[in-house]
Specification:
about 675 residues, mainly alpha, Na+/H+ antiporter like fold, 2 domains, elongated
């Protein structure tokens, strides 16, 4: 099968898996994607996508870790530096040694060095799958930050330990002194080079910007390329850790971004959008590839008649349990040490439950699979690598074991804290609503007779954004109920428009042809409000017919007469809409659901603005008025965010997210204004 078809199949599976995850949120998306990969491998016999470990680290691990470094909270990183470094280095070494001895003891056919290699490659954690589980349950922020922090480093430490163990099996030679020296060199040199290259890329961006090159797309592409270039230079030129280099460069990028956040908002929005698409694809493809490889890695071992399949499964369960037990013991002892001896404010008392949560979040994933697939087939003497197929089977099995155990038991351990997590999400949504309400109030304050229309348009925009935040905290049933009530109010307003048009028809103010045309337009709108497929189809079909008539309008012989009719029709539509708006404003005083009436009022205000059809001069003037209002509004929004942060209503991460939201609105508006 061609590479193109394989990639397309993977992307289709990626999209389908996310749709399924939406309807079955209890199963992590990562697990669904692994399942799709397994199904693809079983159904499509010739599907293959062999990626060497070096290429896998470059194409997947480097950009993912660079992005994690860009978004990791530095204050948390510094506060938890001891536990992060302990998990990323000491725990990796403990897992390699203890796990290696256990594997060799349980399966003597696997040499000790090969057992060390297997334990080493099982030591790196994968936070992507944990993040998928964290979306539906509440996992403490401290635990998530620990997993994210250690994953920035333990990929490198695990791979280094794995490579040395594999080299010992292949060559039969191992020097602890050389291994420790190389290990230290790769970490230190990688960090230094990451820092230097990070500054180089930042310097390039600032230099080019000073020379007048302001292409937003160019700078976004430059940022996307940064982790790939840094990884290649670090690995190929200095033979240091490219993983550590991209992590350091990512953290440096986050420092610079904070200081230029309001200056280059448009660039940040484009870059973040690009990153979101890239990360969506990379995260999904990683687990699809993982599932794609599982059947082939397990097939040889399952087909081996000398070993029972149940025995192999027992090996997987035992090794997976020991790996998690090592993590549990280390986490508990380290938390006890911090509680008793470390001088920290409000130390957290160690508990079995919290330690269990930390242990179960140690899910293994893509790096483990990529590393184990790089095991050579033969050693230096020409003999086969000992028990290669069994090692591959165990690695794949342990990945599935840790993922399934986390899926099943993490919700049980975090059940009591779920409500707290939901409250946090709602609190952030409320904070966003406060920012939008502050903006609306500011526009109302600055509204006057001259900028009245521009202010109303801007208020309508912010009200639409406010309603969107309300939708984000509603259930599906609530959304359906809300939309049904909005339709009822729309139909009531439409009835008022129809009544107005019929009245002026009865008074002889319009001709029958114009009346029929206006009635037809109202019918089209009424069809659009319906929820059935037939009505929506008729509305879209009518819209196409009207567009066709407008396209060939200039070919008509009676162009002037038609133009006069259209002008008259628009004038009547405007007055009918104003009558409906007046009715809605009267209803607003009596209604209990003011939010629904206000939503329809906003729609009519926007409609009236379009029907007024200002001249080009007035249109330009109104846009200038909107731009001036928007500048003042943005300042008010940022001031409101700062007020909430200072008063403790929102934390630092929520503050950053709200600022990104304001920057996004500002940059999109700027782009529309330029266009």
């Amino acid at each position: 099968m061609s590479l193109l078809i394989t990639v397309l199949l993977l992307l289709i599976c990626l999209l389908i898996s996310n749709v399924i995850s939406h309807y079955i949120p209890s199963i992590p998306t990562a697990l669904i994607q692994i399942g799709f990969g397994i199904i693809l491998a079983l159904l499509v016999q010739d599907i293959t996508l062999n990626i060497e470990t070096e290429w896998f680290l470059l194409l997947f691990v480097a950009p993912l870790l660079y992005n994690d470094g860009r978004h990791f909270p530095r204050e948390e990183l510094w506060k938890m530096r001891a536990s992060i470094m302990g998990n990323a280095i000491i725990l990796v070494l403990l897992t390699t040694v203890i796990g290696g001895y256990f594997i060799h003891w349980m399966i003597p056919a696997i040499p000790l060095a090969a057992a060390f290699a297997l334990a080493a490659i099982l030591s790196p954690t994968d936070p992507v799958a944990v993040n998928g589980i964290a979306k539906r349950i509440h996992i403490p922020d401290k635990v998530l930050n620990l997993v994210r922090g250690e994953s920035l480093i333990n990929d490198a430490s695990g791979l280094v330990a794995f490579n040395y163990a594999i080299a010992a099996v292949v060559t039969g030679y191992f020097s602890l002194k050389e291994a420790l020296f190389d290990f230290s060199y790769m970490f230190i040199a990688g960090a230094i080079l990451g820092l230097i290259l990070g500054f180089v890329f930042i310097g390039i961006r600032f230099s080019l910007r000073k020379k007048g090159i302001g292409d937003v797309t160019f700078y976004s592409l430059l940022q996307i390329m940064t982790p790939f270039v840094i990884y290649i230079i670090t690995e190929e030129l200095l033979h240091a850790s490219g993983v550590i280099a991209v992590v350091v460069a990512g953290i440096l990028a986050s420092l610079v971004k904070e200081r230029t956040e309001t200056v280059h908002a448009e660039e940040q929005v484009v870059t973040e959008n690009l990153w979101s698409v890239i990360l969506f694809i990379l995260n999904g493809i990683v687990f699809l590839l993982l599932g794609l490889k599982i059947p082939s890695t397990m097939m040889t071992t399952i087909a081996n008649p000398t070993i029972s399949n149940w025995l192999i499964i027992g090996y997987v369960l035992a090794i997976g349990a020991v790996i998690l037990a090592i993590r549990f013991a280390w986490s508990y002892l380290f938390s006890y040490y911090e509680y008793r001896f470390e001088k920290v404010k409000n130390p957290e008392k160690p508990s079995i439950k919290n330690t269990m949560v930390i242990s179960l979040t140690g899910v293994r994933g893509a790096v483990t699979m990529a590393g184990v697939l790089s095991i050579p087939y033969v050693v230096m003497t020409g003999e086969e690598f000992p028990e290669r197929s069994l090692i591959l089977f165990i690695a794949a099995g342990v990945i599935l074991f840790t993922l399934i155990v986390a899926t099943v038991f993490l919700p049980l351990l975090s059940k009591s804290e779920k409500t707290k997590g939901e409250i946090g999400d709602i609190a952030f949504n409320k904070a966003k609503q406060k920012v939008l309400l502050a903006a609306i109030k500011q526009i109302e304050i600055e509204k006057n007779e001259e900028n009245h229309d521009a202010a109303n348009e801007l208020i309508a925009e912010y009200k639409r954004m406010f309603r969107q935040t309300q939708f984000e905290q509603k259930t599906n049933d609530e959304i359906v109920s809300y939309q049904r009530k909005v339709v009822e109010v729309r139909l009531l307003a439409l009835k008022t428009e129809r009544k107005y048009i019929q009245n002026i028809m009865n008074q002889g103010e319009i001709r029958e042809k114009t009346f029929e045309r206006l009635e037809k337009l109202l019918d089209y709108r009424e069809e659009a409000f319906s929820n059935n497929f037939r009505s929506k189809f008729l509305y879209l079909f009518g819209k196409m017919i009207r567009a066709w008539h407008q396209l060939f309008f200039h070919l008509r012989k009676d162009r002037e007469a038609t133009l006069t009719t259209l002008r008259l029709s628009k004038n009547i539509q405007l007055k009918a809409a104003q009558a409906a708006l007046e009715m809605l404003e009267n209803q607003l005083q009596k209604s209990e659901r003011k939010d629904i009436i206000l939503a329809v009022i906003s729609e009519y205000q926007s409609m009236i603005g379009k029907l007024k059809k200002p001249t080009k001069y007035n249109n330009e003037k109104r846009e200038e008025q909107k731009e001036e209002l928007r500048i003042n509004v943005m300042e008010k929004e940022r001031a409101e965010i700062q007020r909430m942060y200072t008063s403790g209503e929102i934390n630092r991460e929520q503050t950053k997210e709200l600022r990104r939201f304001v920057n996004y609105v500002e940059s999109v508006t700027l782009q529309e204004h330029v266009e």
